[in-house]
Amino acid sequence: MADKPARKKVTINTLMAKKKRGEPITQLAAYDYRTAVVADRLGMDILCVSDTGGMILFGHQSTVSVSFDEVMMMSQAIDRGSKYGLRMVDMPYWSFHVSKEQAIENAGRFVHEANAEVMKCEGNRHHAANIEAIVNAGVPVQGHIGITPMRMPQLGGFIAQGKTAKRAKELIDDAKAMYDAGCFSLLCEVTTHEVAEYLAETLPIPVISLGAGNRADGVHIISSDLFHLWEEHVPKHSRIYTDLIPIMEDVITRYMKDVVERDYPGPAETIHMAPEELETFAREMKWERKLEEIKSGAKKAG
To answer: Which sequence ranges form a coiled-coil region, renumbered to this chain (predicted)?
Structure first.
């Protein structure tokens, strides 16, 4: 059997070539080292450090409260765990919204301190100017439209976007503003299938679906959704490939039982002193119980 060819580093040109060939792009929201290591060696195209990780790892109930420093910590972990996938950072709430200067500064910090290669910025046409500033500063950006968790009050909650012709047209306008700002790619989160399909057909850049059907140029999913690690809510668009919660419950229950019954650690997991060293130690420490145990063992052996 021929050896599998060595994997090449994914770049924006790689993604553009995939779009041209009609080959789907895989994008995974990852935020811990081990997930990055496994996904990267399996061939994931894009590893996106999602602010959703702040909910899974740190217990935030919304991405809005996830801090810049928390996203930075996750971004550094992904950098350590990946070699080939394109490293993307989901810029957190209020990190690029205030001004062009703030947007450039914070994007630059992710590049400088976490070795990030591209950013992801969620919003609409009103955020395009600040996104354009990041791009002009030399940091590529994936635009993010549709359900944007930072704007839930405005959108009326986690409701699919683009179900009416009017709303679909607004999303198209947002997408075109992102493209005009220089975005190299676009993520459609829980828009209707038709919105993502139209954008994939009409925009020259890769369009990625997050709950927006399978006719875009690629698909994004949150890694914890694959394993049901956010029990509080399972989005309609997510597919649980393996439910790790029952497995975790079983393992932790068995561990607790073994500890209570003094079955763990057992002989296979325990290190002992050599007999002569133990006897010397017990004498020096005047550990009478252990000395009696040694004597008793010697009598039984004799």
So the answer is: none
Which structural domain, as residue segments, surrounds residue 123? 12-240
Which residues does the annotation mark as catalytic? 189
CATH number of the domain enclosing 121: 3.20.20.60
Q: pTM of the prediction?
A: 0.93
Residue 120 known to bind ligand: yes
Mean pLDDT of 208-218: 98
122 in a known ligand binding site: yes
Q: What is the pLDDT of residue 297?
A: 87
Residues 142 and 260 in one domain: no
pLDDT category, 154, cuts 50, 70, 90?
low
Give 13-22 pLDDT, tens digit per residue: 999 999 999 9
Residues 162 and 21 in one domain: yes
Lowest mean pLDDT among 31-35, 101-105, 228-232, 252-256: 228-232
Instruction: Give the model confidence (pLDDT) of 170-207 as tens digits.
Output: 999 999 999 999 999 999 999 999 999 999 999 999 99
Determine, yes or no, domain membership for 5. Answer: no
Query: Could you tell me if 96 and 233 lie in one domain?
Result: yes
Q: Is 52 annotated as a binding residue?
A: yes
